[in-house]
C-alpha cells in the first residue's frame, strides 16, 4: 500500500510537471506569436518574471492565519463558551434574571465591531419585571468565539440554534439583532423559523446589490456613501479574497466605518462617535473584537453581508410563524431609510417602527431598549 501511495504521488508530480511544461509551451507560443521579433530566451525571461510577480502578489494578498483563543500564541479564554455542532466554541455573556426563573429567553446578536458585552440596553428593572433571561454572544471570529472560514448567513442562524440548545433555552426563544448582526435575523427566518417565538431587528444593514431592491434608488443611495465605503463594498462583493490586502493599504480608499472617520448626520450618533474616539473606547472595542485576527471578524463580516447572497434575500422570505419587528431611525447614516422602507413594504408581515430623529446606533437612544424589548415580548404570538 505504501508503495502504491508513493507511486501515485510520483505519478501526480509527473503529471503536474507535464501540465506545467505544456502551459509554459503554450504561453511561449502565444507570446512568440504576439512578439514575433522576440527571441525564445527573451520570452522565457519575461514569462518567468511575470510568474514571480504573480507569486509575490498572491502571497501579498493572502490573509495571515487566525489566532484562535486558547491555542498556542492565541489570546486566553476568559468567557464561558459552548461547543457547537462542528466543534467550534462560542463565547457568551448573560444578563437579566436567571434561566430557571425566566418567562422569556432572549438571544442577542451584536453588530459590526461589537461583542458579547453588547445588548439592546434594556433596564434591569424591565428585565426583572418581565422575567427576561438574555444571552449575548461573540459571533464567529469575534472576541473569544472560534473563527468559521465557511461563515454564511445560514451558519450564523445555526450558531444561534446551537447556542440555544447548549444553554437549554427550550423549543422556542426570542432573537434580537443589531445592525450588521441582523443578517442572522433574516437567516433565522429562513433556516430556523420553528425555533423562534419572535424577532426584533435594530437598523439591520442592507446589501445594496440585493435583487429585491429598486436598482435605480439603490444605485443612487450607494453613490452617496463615502468613496472608501463604496470601494470596500465593491471589493467585498467582486473580490472578497482581496479584501484584507485592500483594507491594509493606506493609499487605497477603504471603509470609513472600520476606521471611525465618517461623520454621521444624526447628532447623537456623531456625539458618540467623537467621544468613543477621544476616550479610546472605539479602539479598545476594535481590539477586543479582532483579537483573533481582523480577517475572521471584520472582513469576514463584510464579505458575508455585502457579498453574494446565493440562497435567499430578505425580500424572498415567506411570512414566519412569529412576529417580526424592525426598528429604523430616519437619520441613519449607515442604512438608508428609503431602502429599509422598501423591504418592509414589500414583505408586508414585518412590523416597521420608524423612529424620527434617531440615527443608526439605536441602543444608545435613551429608553429605546425598553421599548424594543417590551414591543417584542408583548406581541400576541410571543406569549
Automatic annotation (TrEMBL):
<feature type="transmembrane region" description="Helical">
    <location>
        <begin position="16"/>
        <end position="34"/>
    </location>
</feature>
<dbReference type="InterPro" id="IPR029058">
    <property type="entry name" value="AB_hydrolase_fold"/>
</dbReference>
<keyword id="KW-0812">Transmembrane</keyword>
<dbReference type="InterPro" id="IPR000073">
    <property type="entry name" value="AB_hydrolase_1"/>
</dbReference>
<feature type="transmembrane region" description="Helical">
    <location>
        <begin position="41"/>
        <end position="58"/>
    </location>
</feature>
<keyword id="KW-0472">Membrane</keyword>
<dbReference type="GO" id="GO:0016787">
    <property type="term" value="F:hydrolase activity"/>
</dbReference>
<keyword id="KW-0378">Hydrolase</keyword>
<feature type="domain" description="AB hydrolase-1">
    <location>
        <begin position="106"/>
        <end position="362"/>
    </location>
</feature>
<keyword id="KW-1133">Transmembrane helix</keyword>
<protein>
    <submittedName>
        <fullName>Catalytic/ hydrolase</fullName>
    </submittedName>
</protein>
<dbReference type="Pfam" id="PF12697">
    <property type="entry name" value="Abhydrolase_6"/>
</dbReference>
Amino acid at each position: 500500500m505504501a508503495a502504491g501511495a508513493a507511486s501515485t504521488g510520483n505519478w501526480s508530480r509527473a503529471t503536474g510537471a507535464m501540465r506545467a511544461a505544456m502551459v509554459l509551451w503554450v504561453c511561449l507560443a502565444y507570446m512568440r506569436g504576439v512578439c514575433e521579433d522576440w527571441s525564445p530566451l527573451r520570452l522565457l525571461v519575461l514569462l518567468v518574471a511575470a510568474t514571480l510577480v504573480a507569486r509575490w502578489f498572491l502571497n501579498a494578498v493572502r490573509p495571515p492565519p487566525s489566532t484562535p483563543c486558547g491555542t498556542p500564541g492565541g489570546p486566553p479564554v476568559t468567557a464561558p463558551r459552548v461547543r457547537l455542532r462542528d466543534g467550534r466554541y462560542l463565547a457568551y455573556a448573560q444578563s437579566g434574571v436567571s434561566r430557571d426563573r425566566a418567562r422569556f429567553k432572549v438571544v442577542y446578536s451584536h453588530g459590526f465591531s461589537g461583542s458579547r458585552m453588547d445588548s439592546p440596553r434594556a433596564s434591569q428593572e424591565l428585565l426583572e419585571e418581565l422575567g427576561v433571561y438574555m444571552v449575548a454572544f461573540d459571533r464567529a471570529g469575534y472576541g473569544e468565539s472560534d473563527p468559521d472560514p465557511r461563515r454564511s448567513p445560514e451558519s450564523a442562524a445555526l450558531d444561534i440554534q446551537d447556542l440555544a440548545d447548549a444553554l437549554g433555552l427550550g423549543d422556542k426563544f426570542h432573537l434580537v439583532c443589531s445592525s450588521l448582526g441582523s443578517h442572522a435575523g433574516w437567516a433565522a427566518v429562513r433556516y430556523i423559523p420553528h425555533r423562534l417565538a419572535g424577532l426584533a431587528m435594530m437598523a439591520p444593514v442592507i446589501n445594496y446589490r440585493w435583487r429585491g431592491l429598486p436598482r435605480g434608488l439603490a444605485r443612487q443611495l450607494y453613490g452617496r456613501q463615502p468613496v472608501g465605503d463604496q470601494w470596500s463594498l465593491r471589493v467585498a462583493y467582486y473580490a472578497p479574497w482581496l479584501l484584507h490586502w485592500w483594507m491594509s493599504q493606506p493609499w487605497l480608499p477603504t471603509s470609513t466605518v472600520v476606521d471611525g472617520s465618517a461623520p454621521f448626520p444624526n447628532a447623537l450618533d456623531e456625539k458618540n462617535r467623537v467621544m468613543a474616539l477621544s476616550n479610546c473606547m472605539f479602539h479598545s472595542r476594535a481590539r477586543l473584537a479582532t483579537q483573533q485576527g481582523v480577517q475572521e471578524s471584520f472582513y469576514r463580516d463584510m464579505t458575508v453581508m455585502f457579498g453574494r447572497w446565493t440562497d435567499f434575500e430578505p425580500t424572498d422570505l415567506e411570512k414566519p410563524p412569529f412576529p417580526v419587528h424592525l426598528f429604523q431611525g430616519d437619520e441613519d447614516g449607515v442604512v438608508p431609510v428609503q431602502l429599509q422602507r422598501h423591504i418592509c413594504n414589500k414583505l408586508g408581515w414585518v412590523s416597521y417602527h420608524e423612529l424620527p430623529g434617531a440615527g443608526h446606533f439605536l441602543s444608545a437612544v435613551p429608553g429605546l431598549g425598553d421599548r424594543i424589548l417590551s414591543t417584542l415580548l408583548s406581541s400576541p404570538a410571543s406569549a
